Amino acid sequence: MWPDRRLTDLLKIEHPILLAPMASAIDAEIAIAVAQGGGLPSVPCAMLSVEKAREQVNIIRQRVAAPINVNFFCHRPVEADASREAGWRQRLAPYYREMGLDPAASVNAASRAPFDAAMCELMEELKPEVVSFHFGLPEPALLKRVKAAGCLVMGSATIVKEAIWLEANGSDIIIAQGAEAGGHRGMFLTDNIAHQPGTFALVPQVVDAVKVPVVAAGGIADGRGIAAAFALGAAGVQIGSAYLRCPESKVSAVARGALAQASDDSTVITNVMTGRPARGVANRAMREVGPISPDAPAFPHAATAFVLLRQAAEKRGNADFTNLWAGQAVAMGRELPAAELTRSLAEAAQAQMRKLAG
Ligand SMILES: Cc1cc2nc3c(=O)[nH]c(=O)nc-3n(C[C@H](O)[C@H](O)[C@H](O)COP(=O)(O)O)c2cc1C
Q: Would you say the pTM of this structure is higher than 0.70?
């Protein structure tokens, strides 16, 4: 059924369609649905405690017999810099006042933590079929333990140099994340967003540079995009934005409304929401403070100052301060249950491939 079976065979999945891990936007419910549709479910753990991560994996395992991809960030943590934080609060103070908030109010934010020894122990306990990383790979000793637990390792590359590095350092599968992709760029050997190639240019060059299977990500939202990814040499696709409007996603009603109104030119790459470049539907904060600001505190500290603003604005019914992560194909997302969407994507891709084969 699929022209390249390396990924379906390796992961033991029916369709080479991977639900993109999307921290805070999805949980076990949509993962279960994607698994039921024949794709690979994911559990994004960047914003979860060890207990919550265990709970999410167990919920999926109780409901469906399917391989699971557990996902982590592995950025180098940077201590919050008090003077930079103060400057950032100062920059956002007019918005605080407009929302009737105290600009000096303290915030207890859910932070984005990198993979560490505690999470590594959890992977040894749970032994998920796949563990994937964004922003490079964890330190070699931790990665060795993940591999010794029998997990396949998947890493994200935004340029060919990163793909070669990931393969040399233990990735069994490489995600080629093009500039179209929603969310944070997985970049780790460069920080130049102006140079990030698009999916169409990146995928074949990564395929030529590495031996491991390559998964295309970024701007893929229908059967034509999946067929194109296979034509470029990918063995699978990772799809995020197209799933955001499924009823099972955890996107808030306000953000859902903003995503539903988005078009092909609605997204920008911004660093203001978290301190690291990510693509999302442009909102007031991204437009007025950025989209790129040299004043944003280092990742993930820039996000803290937006917590109260986001809550207040969403109460008023707007997404002015919500990080509306989404890619350039967000308008192609459909409000379908995720199992049905997965099956429909697979069928449409296969029909497109047959059509192209004549
Ligand atoms: C809302 C959102 C959140 C994301 N969070 C994560 C994450 O937690 N971990 C990760 O590896 N990638 C994350 N990504 C990036 C995706 O893995 C993937 O590269 C991207 O969704 C593919 O592009 P697409 O959105 O055009 O399908 C996120 C993307 C979005 C849209």
A: yes
